[in-house]
Every structure is written in structure tokens, then in C-alpha cells.
Design a protein that fits this description.
Blueprint (H helix, E strand, L loop, with lengths): L3 H20 L18 E4 L4 E8 L19 E9 L1 E10 H6 L4 H21 L1 H4 L22 E2 L5 E2 L2 E2 L5 H12 L13 E6 L4 H9 L13 H6 L2 E4 L14 E5 L5 E13 L8 E13 L6 E4 L4
Parallel strand pairs: 1-11, 7-13, 8-9
Antiparallel strand pairs: 2-3, 4-12, 5-6, 8-10, 10-13, 11-12
Helix pairs in contact: 1-3
Amino acid sequence: MFTEAQNLSITKTALDTVFFQEFDELSMLPELATAQTGSLFKQVSTEHSAYIGQVNKPVGMFSLIGEVTNVPAGTPEVTNTYTITVGDYAQKIVITKDLFDDNMHDVWAKNVKEFAQAARITQNFTAFSIFRNAFSGDTTPVLTADGVSVCNATHTLIGGGSISNTTTGVLNSANLNTAITALREQKNQAGVIVGGEPAILLVPPALWKTAVELTDSALVADSANNAINVYRSAMGMIVLTSPYLGTASGGTDTRWFLLTKNHSVSRLVRQGLETALTPWQYSDNRTYTYQANYRESYFVPDYSGIYGSTGTA
């Protein structure tokens, strides 16, 4: 005879087995990005309910000096303080004792799978809101620490001056080349050209075919000439997509983004996904209450390494 604690543990284990098997299931398609794609969302951990950071202005370029000349001093500077409040996401599902005991047609297992899917969908939908709201014309644009949208024509540099990391061109060979050039010539907060190389081409599902043709065809995709496709042979960038970027999820089917490996799009994790089970004995109607929650947020402190297009022109 099992004790009440043992029965509770067995029940929770059965539910967790189904839940996490579904939640942790990875797509077989390497181009399908999620909130846990480390190259797209830098994973940052915290032990607090809020995360405070600042943007750094590095020193400038080295100076040519004589043999006994004093070495010039470069002074780093930090400013543009930002505070990220950790979001708390939770949901529960109620399963009757009879339904769990009988499990006719695997009904409770299906319910728990759908519960896990809802958790994964919520996580990914929230993560990609950064890109759905990356431009100044969006209803609720995501801001970098300098107070303007992630993709903006006037990011003010700490060292003086400003840069633009946005355009309006559709995704094609010429505009992709323009974006690559812009990233390579993009200045950091000290006004120095960093020479960033494109690593990720992020597109909505409607542009996935175009993006793959541009970057993976042996020959130039949008030309009648038999020219070698330099994006394939020289770049090595990967194409990523998500169903939570396009028009169907509140974004657009035209915008696209080019990012270097040193971008600052971040996922802040306070607590990974946890589950808890309240047994039927503590309810008035003989039901289990199975709940799950996680605590995280997403932010972009700096424009560096990001170039985005609305794809409207």
C-alpha cells in the first residue's frame, strides 16, 4: 500500500514525464529558432527580480608613438543605465481524479501535452516580440538603453555622433549586400568601425525560401547570369526563422534582420520551468491541480551587431 506522499510523487512524476517530454522536444529543423537558441538570444542568468546594466563605451584605436613617448590613456565609459524586470509566467490545468485514474483514450496525457505546448508557445511568442516590435513605427517598440527602438536611424553614440541600423529594402541580393556592408562598417559607442561579420539572417516564414535561396544556392539566386553565389561560399551565415515573426502572429511577412555573433539580444532567466501538483484530497471536487511557471524576460541593451529592414521598399 502506497502512502499519500508516495501516491502524490507517483502522480506528479507521471504528469511531469509527459509535460517535460513535450516541452523539451526540439524541432528537427535547424533553421527553426526558439527562445532557447543561444546564438539568437544570449542567455543571461540572474538571482534577483530585476536586472540592472549599463552600456560600455570602449577605448578608441591605438596611437602610433615614439620610443620614449608617454603612452596615451584611453578611458572606458559606461552610461545608459537600464533596468529589466523579470516577468513571471504561470498557468495551471485541472485534472479530475477519475480522469487521471481511468485515463480513457489517453485524455489526461493529451491535456498535459497541450499544457506543455502552451508553455513553449508563450515563451517563444514573448521572445520574438523583440523583433516584431523592433522599429520606431511599431505600436510598442522595444527600446535599447539609448531610448530609441532596436532598429533606428538615430542611435546616439556615447562618444558623440549617431548611427543608423535600419533600412526599408526588401530581401534580395542587392539589399542583403547593403546590410552586410552596413554591419561591417558599423561603429561602436566610441565611434570606431568594428568590422562585424554577419552570422544570422533572421526572417519570417514567408521569406524563408527567399533567404535560403540567397544564402545557399550554388549560383546567384535572383539573376540569369551564372555567377557564383558569394553569400554561400564566403559568408557562412545561417538562416533562422520563427512562426512568431510573421503577419499571422502580429508581425509582418516582409521584415528581416542581419546579426553578427556579437549582438546583444538577450534572454534573462531568473527561474527555469517548474511544476507543482496539488492532490485531489485538498480540493472540494476531487481534482488534481497541476501548475507550471517560469520567470524570464528579453531585452536588447545596445544596437551593436544588429541591422534590420522593414522590407517595405
